[in-house]
Design goal:
This protein is of the alpha+beta class. The protein is built from 12 helices and 11 strands. The chain has 2 domains: 89 residues; 233 residues, Bira Bifunctional Protein, Domain 2 (BirA Bifunctional Protein, domain 2, 2-Layer Sandwich), CATH 3.30.930.10. The structure holds phenylalanine (PHE). The site of phenylalanine (PHE) has 12 residues, from strand 9 and strand 10.
Length: 357
């Protein structure tokens, strides 16, 4: 084909095909069939080589024009089709964000009551200005006992039913911490007063029956300042219990007791009235003013600083608040139990929104 009329016909056919291409794939097929290596326009270009010079000049210009117009037409059709494809995708992917969360796999999972109670307590104490501190489950004998004013051979060591590791070469022993109180030591060693922390976590004692498991949970609190006293301790505990049990009034009882790391020391009982059983007392933990020896062991001057500490059983608090009868079931990993007593992943406890949903 060396005729410019034929060329016009070719161009017209191509432009028609471009217009008719319904999607990007069809358009690409037209492009390959025209401007591709063996395409119809490319073949015309190739034919130029065999022509006489004058003929070549005229026909060459004509072919070049066709090529340019075909390219332009391909480009604009492509832009149009891409725009339409995007439009269609956007339409098909619209999301109505006002719809409620769809119950998917997330709703299957459950928050364990212990985690729930920890989150609730952290929320309550955060509101009172306490920070969360942590320590390891595997603790040194020194932090778990000695620095807490429980020297070697002290009877309190036996009372704790400790899990000991084998002694190291230097004779020092690691233990599974028997309480969260070593976090007091860790905090005071690295932070100067004023101190206001809580430390929730696992603790271990070699003890197992209906009301004891070898691993359980405690929450420790420590406040050290220059003028902190027992009145503050009582107030904090009362506020905590009211917020935790979501009641306006709680009756508490402080029974004189003994812990080597506090002086004076008390055991904390609460009246189960809040739970519909007035007159029945439940022991929830121990407390007291931090012993001067403990302050000294952490490099704090007991003539300048004083403060209080308490430790409570989290599992017990969970049983009490949520009416869970058997402690051992907490750690049975029974999915039916977890489904029954567990909490929704999507409900975060907050003081403003309600702790327990
Ligand atoms: N650590 C004590 C226990 O486990 C509780 C406690 C903590 C008592 C802090 C007084 C002060 O029994």
């Amino acid at each position: 084909m060396t005729d410019t009329n034929d060329l016009s016909q070719l161009e017209a056919d191509i432009l028609k095909a471009i217009d008719a291409a319904a999607d990007l794939a069809a358009l690409e097929a037209v492009r390959i069939g025209t401007l591709g290596k063996k395409g119809s326009v490319s073949q015309q270009m190739a034919a130029l080589g065999k022509m006489a010079p004058e003929e070549r000049k005229e026909f060459g210009q004509a072919v070049n024009l066709v090529k340019t117009r075909v390219s332009d037409a391909l480009e604009s059709r492509k832009a149009l089709l891409e725009g339409a494809a995007l439009e269609a995708r956007l339409r098909s992917e619209t999301a109505d964000i006002t719809l409620p969360v769809r119950l998917g796999p997330l709703s299957e999972g459950r928050i364990h009551p212990v985690s729930q109670v920890m989150d609730e307590l952290i929320e309550i104490f955060a509101d009172l200005g306490f920070a969360v501190a942590e320590g390891p489950d595997i603790e040194t004998d020194d932090y778990n006992f000695t620095k807490l004013n429980i020297p070697e051979e002290h009877p309190a060591r036996q009372e704790h039913d400790t899990f000991y590791f084998n002694p190291g070469e230097d004779g020092s022993r690691l233990v599974l911490r028997t309480h969260t109180s070593p976090v007091q030591i860790r905090t005071m060693l690295k932070q100067k007063p004023p101190i206001r922390i809580i430390a929730p976590g696992r603790v271990y004692r070699c003890d197992s029956d209906q009301t004891h498991t070898p691993m359980f949970h405690q929450i420790e609190a420590l406040v050290i300042d220059e003028e902190t006293h027992m009145g503050h301790l009582k107030w904090v505990l009362e506020e905590m219990c009211k917020a935790f049990f979501e009641v306006d009034q709680v009756t508490m009882r402080f029974r004189a007791s003994h812990f080597p790391f506090t002086e004076p020391s008390a055991e904390i009982d609460i009246d189960k009235a809040a739970l519909g059983k007035p007159g029945e007392w439940l022991e929830i933990g121990g407390c007291g003013m931090v012993h001067p020896n403990v302050l000294r062991n952490c490099g704090l001057d007991p003539d300048k600083y004083q403060g209080f500490a308490f430790g409570m059983g989290i599992d017990r608090m969970a049983m009490l608040k949520y009416g869970i009868p058997d402690l051992r079931a907490f750690f049975g990993a029974d999915l039916r139990w977890l489904k029954h007593y567990g909490f929704s992943v999507l409900d975060q406890p907050t003081l403003s929104g309600g702790l327990s949903g």
